[in-house]
Predict the structure.
Amino acid sequence: MKDTIKYLILILIYLVCGVELQAQNYTFRNVVMSDGLSGLLVNAIYKDSEGFVWLGTDNCLDRFDGVKVRHFEFRGIESGRKKRVNSVTETANKQLWVGNGIGLWRLNRANSQLERIVPEKIDFAVNTLLADGDILYIGTEKGLFIHKGGQLLQVLTDRNMLAACNRIMDICLNEDKSALWLATVQGLFSYSLKDGKIDSWHFQENVPEADYFRCLTRIGETLYLGTMSQGVVRFDINKKSFSHTVSLGCDVISDISSDGKETVYIATDGNGVHFLSHKAQQVTRRFCHDVSDKEGIRSNSIYSLLVDDRGAVWVGHFQAGLDYSLYQNGLFRTYAYPPLFNSANLSIRSFVNRGQEKVIGSRDGLYYINEATGVVKSFVKPVLTSDLILTICFYKGEYYIGTYGGGMMVLNPETLSLNYFSRGDTELFQKGHIFCVRPDEKENLWIGTSQGLFCYNGQTKQIKHFTSANSQLPEGNVYEVSFDSTGKGWIATETGMCIYDPASQSLRSNVFPEGFVHRDKVRTIYEDAGHNLYFIREKGSLFTSTLTMDRFRNRSVFSTLPDNSLMSIVEDDQGWLWVACNDGLLRIKEEGEEYDAFTFNDGVPGPTFTNGAAYKDGKGILWFGNTKGLIYVDPKRVDEVRGKVRPIVFTDILANGVPFTNPSLKYNQNNLTFCFTDFAYGLPSALLYEYQLEGVDKDWKLLAAQNEVSYYGLSSGTYTFRVRLPGNEQSEAVYQVTVCPMIPWWGWALSVLLIVGIAVFIRYYVWKRMRRLLVSSASSVSVSSAEEEIQQREQSVEQHPEVNSEQQPSVVEEKYKTNRLTEEECKELHKKLVAYVEKEKPYINPDLKMGDLASALDTSSHSLSYLLNQYLNQSYYDFINDYRVTQFKKMVADSQYSRYTLTALAELCGFSSRASFFRSFKKSAGVTPNEYIRSIGGTAKEE
């Protein structure tokens, strides 16, 4: 009776608080100046039709693609509040408009520059912008402006341009777009777009700032106005009356918007963000700063707010940068039974799903959930000897729980009692390691342990123990027992495999063909619908075999997937194999020709999955154990969700670090960088792409946690760069670029013609000369002698390269024959060289020569050359550039150099050119300068 009452109370709480309990979980990521933001005050947020998010800061317009921030500066304006962006919008022709403290601006996409618009008419603050198709409504400090068809119309609510009611703070259209509603600092106004009629209403008289309406939005026939001192005020358009909404704990409203149907989104300057239900007139969601919540918003002082088309929340702060909720498309869900249980952030090692009854094992204990009765119970120490649950099996109405170091226990779902398994080796089943528990078709229970294999019959209560001493069981821990569709048992241990033959009731390890995986450490065995077996090894790729082992082979899962990363495997009803790894989740079909990769953006909470924890339930839903929860997915929804992805967009394409628009490049513009985005707006570390540069890459390459790819030293030719989400052709973006040769085709043609012309001229000259010489016999003899002498000399010259070639191997020995240093002399000179270079830093001189360095060391260039080439096996330039690279690393780690660009830092270190710097850094560090700076948590400042 007590349990029933308790259950009813919980149900009542759930129904009353249902809105909050079922609300979507939000995880916020912060973007600040170290991430590239131009300022910490974010006063405006707008998401354009392409997917970019535009941020108006105190001094700049920023464009954010989910990873990188690009700045668009207001040129020709002195620093100060006049630069602060108040509003950003986009008209139907994809023209971006910006209003700031000095006027109206438009983005010229051809040169990526902001251009001032009609400064002779709008030379004062633009507070708000509203786009309706190609029409732009502009709310300013001196009235309303309407930009339509290239014409600009000014509308004043009062003939006195300086009147407070002409200071328009926000605008919205009514339902049929026949009138504009204007929120001003002195009341609410409406402007008829048909006849130009203007009406006004005032909230309260004789109340300071009561009519100071700062922002405005509309749902149906209700306006919601944000004020500076009265909170949010409603205005009934039909009744023409004002009323208060619920208190939000702060009456200073900085921004307000809505979904146009049910929810009003409110930002306060002091108490965070609130979602207000239009119908219920209640707050359904709050976001407030909490110092203990590392995934919440960073401040309660909100200046701008946007809830985008995908439901992501964007919050602009005063002096705290930008927060945005990480987007997940909802393909995967983390199992929860609210309000009693939530598997989020639990490391799930094993589970049994029997519909409404589930038993879940984690690294922190055992959980029993019965959704039919509403019973939830957890088991931890000291009830469990070990709270690391390795395996769970339902057998004859009870759950058998295998632990690491705590033996095996049996859970009775009727009484919820937990007792030790009392058969067999008591010490083992109370303190040993139980790795797997599996039933066979004859209702025997097979138990893999640290001390061999057990077969328990629940009916006769008899137990049989197999060891390497009394059977052919390989030595070591028994990790897996799997019975195939023929009833044959496959047993995997630490040192190999054996097969249980049900006919002879014996274990056999001598039945495997040569080349099988029976000597490997296999952790998981799975049989698909086509009766193929899959073996996941601790080291090695996925191995597949028929039941009779007449055909078997290694199977490629994913070309770039490490062989030791596979954890579990399961097949869905559509024939896809789902492979969980320690760094992600894939599904593959037809030898990997079709594949998909799933990340945080799909709802996968963490990249690491647990061994063998994969299951398909009776409805075809797939379940996986993850280090951050028990997750599930409906495979039939994958194609639907994948069909909604945005095509990848190139954000920047650079040649030698400089953006370009003409895809035909000069021969020396051959260092290319491709930057792109899929507008996921999830975790940057969860980004996953594959790319290929045709003409360079033979296969697709995987790119994780980055959104740019660089190629260096490309030869002349035409290249096609392709990038997409793994296996998703619909998302593919393509860019073709040509690196022109140093000498164009017509240059080669002229060269050939020139050579042919010279040859013809020489032949003609020789023929004419010979003819003249034949006239005189005496001259002929003389000439013949001369020709013989010339011929001998030419033959001697022709033989000379052969002599040089034969002598080539001894060139180095000959070079140092007269200037060879002893071992002790080399050590002394090396010590002197290192001391001088580290103290005096001569390498910062880009014109440093070996002779200069030798003179400083009071030695000869030959001796220094011998030390570097013969003793250190290093060229002079590699030796000097290594010090320059080390100096660069020190500078980027020092905050005083954060204002310098890469090129400036390279020059300070002694590099004479950007190209030589990139080549030397890549050769020395193995990564590019940008990649190195990101690895230490910094941001490279480009030109």
The radius of gyration is 38 Å. The longest helix spans residues 777-807. Confidence is low (pLDDT under 50) at residues 1-23, 776-812.
